[in-house]
Recover the amino acids of this structure.
């Protein structure tokens, strides 16, 4: 209906827009309550080293099972309302708690998605270090994932990541290749890992673009993780092109902590 509605009609009254606003408010209230009532869970998806098939890390991915709403539907609302900040701290603490035993037993690292809003907090570095301290997870066992747009945004935030990196925490660029048009920033940023967006894997792992990204990473001494690897053929091709790590349904979907290393 909105597609056909005239311009002035949208200004006066748009039922679609109104419904969307109501859904947004409802979801925001639901998220706030869910956080208070401890309804969130983490699932974990393995990151596999292509050379030998070993699981070297697991990515923590937020789930809201009671509501059955997928992250791509509720995370933007959490971002827009600022709720992503307390939620993000819950994720970090839970992930570090879960990962400690896996790290001790198998040397596995945990990788956690961090929102730009979280990184904007003055005491971000101190809070991350405090979580590591309290959970007993060594800094080297933690990877923080940030998207390109967050990383290029401002020098102060970049400096925070640099301080964490000095302590041994690693930094990954998530969804690499989708967010920003310049590559120059990569040279200056305190990052260790490029997670190559799933769209590049899906559109052909032996594409020119994939080759260029892998060469760029090699030139900058960055490790590479291909996202969204779904077939053995993709994994084989990626490995021969020099991609070091892969993540995707080929190896495992994200699963609850209890079913990870069974
Ligand atoms: P992401 O960080 O890029 O995570 C990877 C997403 O790709 C996950 O979606 C995962 O389930 C999906 N995926 C993994 N392998 C495959 C595959 O082979 N094929 C396909 N089609 N998809 C695959 P998910 O769990 O729905 O999360 C979506 C996004 O939500 C994440 O993308 C991340 O940006 C955000 N997110 C999830 N958890 C958190 C969190 O704790 N904090 C923040 N700030 N964002 C989060
Ligand atoms: Mg991620
Ligand atoms: Mg990603
Ligand atoms: Mg993604």
């Amino acid at each position: 209906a909105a597609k056909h509605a005239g311009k002035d009609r949208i200004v006066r009254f748009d039922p679609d827009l109104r419904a969307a606003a109501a859904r947004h408010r409802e979801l925001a209230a639901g998220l706030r309550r869910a956080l208070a009532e401890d309804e969130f869970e983490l699932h974990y998806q393995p990151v596999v080293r292509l050379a030998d098939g070993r699981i070297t890390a697991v990515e923590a991915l937020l789930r809201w099972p009671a509501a059955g709403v997928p992250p791509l539907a509720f995370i933007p609302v959490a971002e827009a309302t600022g709720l992503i900040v307390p939620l993000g701290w819950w994720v970090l603490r839970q992930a570090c708690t879960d990962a400690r035993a896996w790290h001790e037993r198998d040397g596995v690292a945990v990788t956690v998605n961090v929102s730009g809003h979280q990184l904007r907090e003055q005491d971000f570095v101190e809070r991350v270090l405090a979580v590591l301290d309290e959970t007993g997870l060594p800094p080297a066992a933690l990877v923080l994932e940030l998207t390109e747009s967050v990383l290029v945004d401002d020098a102060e935030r970049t400096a925070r990541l640099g301080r964490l990196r000095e302590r041994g925490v690693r930094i990954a660029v998530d969804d690499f290749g989708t967010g920003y048009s310049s590559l120059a920033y990569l040279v200056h940023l305190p990052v260790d890992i490029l997670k190559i967006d799933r769209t590049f894997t899906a559109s052909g792992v032996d594409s020119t673009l994939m080759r260029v990204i892998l060469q760029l990473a090699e030139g900058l001494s960055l490790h590479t993780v291909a996202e969204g690897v779904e077939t053995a053929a993709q994994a084989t091709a990626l490995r021969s092109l020099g991609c070091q790590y892969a993540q995707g349904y080929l190896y495992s979907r994200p699963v609850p902590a209890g079913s990870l290393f069974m």
Summary: The mean pLDDT is 92. The radius of gyration is 20 Å.
